[in-house]
Amino acid sequence: MAHDSIRLRQSSCETCAVRHRTVCGALSNEELTSLSRIGRMRKFKAGDIILADEEPTTFFANVISGVIKLEKTSVDGRQQIVGLVFAPDFLGRAYSRSNPYFAQAATDTEICTFPHTGFEQLLRNHPGLEHRLFENTLNELDSAREWMFVLGRKSAQEKVASFLHLIAKRQPMIGCQPIELGAHAARFELPLTRADIADFLGLTIETVSRQLSNLKRQGTIQLVSGREVVVPDLRKLESKADGDDEAVA
Q1: What CATH code would you report for 9-149?
Q2: What pTM was estimated for this model as a whole?
Q3: Distance between the two ends of the chain, CA-based, in angstroms?
Q4: How many CB atoms lie within 10 A of CB 148?
């Protein structure tokens, strides 16, 4: 995009930190060499538009770091966050002629992009890559159905707890926490503003703030700053998300 703060360079699949967890993980070293020839690393600042709704599809991408918001716009101009994309997710819809949504960087983000024509040619030539992309698509569908349940059936507190648990699970450092935090603890910075969280969850900003305060008062989370959160025990947070306060003693 013309106004993006981006830096382009040819990708290096051999040194990619997430390649074994992306759709590229289905490729052999020789096939990765072919992919490297068309891949380009791009960096976006928080707030940059990465893909525009209904514009022609020009590239697909693996997310290397950061969080991306997916948004839809109604005919009267209202916008709704319909999904979040994290590393090592795939961004874009293969075989589609246009983008079905806006994609905006929620945080500083780095992606590895592949041109539309070149990537679809690789899919035709390498069935393993196409199979991995199909698996990725099915996983996204499962996640979307699960989130529909969150939005449709859970209470406000359960929604906020579910969101926090989602972010905690997707933080790249989960499993490598400092010892003093404990094996089941997490520390992360919220990638969305409270207004965006409210939009994503179908709540008001006031309700989101109130439920964060409730979770803090209950000892489920600690609010270190405006956007930094510590979860002393992820199991307790998960029980709050599931509406089962007795699950963890």
Answers
A1: 2.60.120.10
A2: 0.80
A3: 51
A4: 10
